[in-house]
Amino acid sequence: MPSKKKCRNKIYKTPPTPPPTKLRQFENGFVLDCVAVSSISDDFSKLNPKLGQVIPPYNSQNDKFVNSYFKYKGMSKMLKRTKQLNGGCSIEGKAVDYFHNKGHRHIYLSQRNKSGAGHSRELTSGHSSFMCDIQPIIEQADRCSLVCYWYSIVQEVQS
Record's superkingdom (predicted)? Predict the structure, then answer.
């Protein structure tokens, strides 16, 4: 028996694309300056312990997909015994968590992102910026428009 639930896209069953303003907000939320992140990672890779990792440390208590596991009956008792009751720490430990949330790398990247560094229009707009600001090329007074320009290129290629 077919389902009565309607899909927006019957072929792929994907969610609808968000509006451009929402997409822009999502894209600006990413750390886009790969050079800064790479240099930080390279600088801290020479130190022990490895505190300059770019990928954030995993803390299962902050993971919404396993949140119900920590609500089981005996879990609070076990978390209290292991001193992980108040949010706990990641697998790597409290030092890595502190460095990731409040260390030099975090301060540097958050200040860059607040000021808009690393968020150039070419990087964040992607394919939507292709040929959006194309201007006509005027050769003599106002005789030649963009169509004339493309026509002249086609003629040169054909000859």
Answer: Eukaryota
Rounded CA separation 138/149 (Å): 9
pTM: 0.49
pLDDT digits (tens, 9 = 90+) for 106-159: 888 888 777 766 666 665 566 666 666 677 766 655 555 555 555 566 666 665
Helices 94-102 and 104-115: crossing angle in degrees, nearest 10, is 30
DSSP letter, residue 46: T
17: DSSP letter = P
H or E stretch at 114 = helix 104-115
CB hemisphere CA count around 130 (13 angstroms): 3
3-state secondary structure of 45: coil
Q: What is the CA radius of gyration of the chain?
A: 26
DSSP symbol at 60: G
What spatial distance separates the first Cα and last Cα of the chain, rounded to whole Å?
63
